[in-house]
Amino acid sequence: MNKRIEKVLEAIARKHRLFDSLSEQNTSEDFNEVAVWCVRSALEEAYQQGINDGQQKSKTKGETL
């Protein structure tokens, strides 16, 4: 995974209050109880970001989806 994707995912995790960091701490901080709607919202945002990135990439290469 490249650094840009890691930054985007970490920002999504923080925004949806899942984790402060996606780096392993090797402590109890690696485990977090979160509401299912927070996970769903974060997954939806990550999915949409993937769609947007794919569309942007195809535009720069002149492809059509």
Give the helix tally: 2
Shape: elongated
Strand content: under 5%
- Mean of residue pLDDT? 90
Task: Describe what you observe in this structure.
This protein is an all-alpha fold and 65 residues long. The longest helix is centred in the last third of the chain and has 26 residues, at 36-61. Helix content is 60%, strand content 0%. The model has no long low-confidence stretch (mean pLDDT 90).
Primary descriptors:
single chain; 65 residues; mainly alpha; 2 helices; 60% helix; elongated
Q: How would you summarize this macromolecular structure in one to three sentences?
A:
Helix content is 60%, strand content 0%. With 65 residues, it is mainly α.
How do the strands and helices of this protein lay out in sequence?
Layout: H1 3-15, H2 36-61
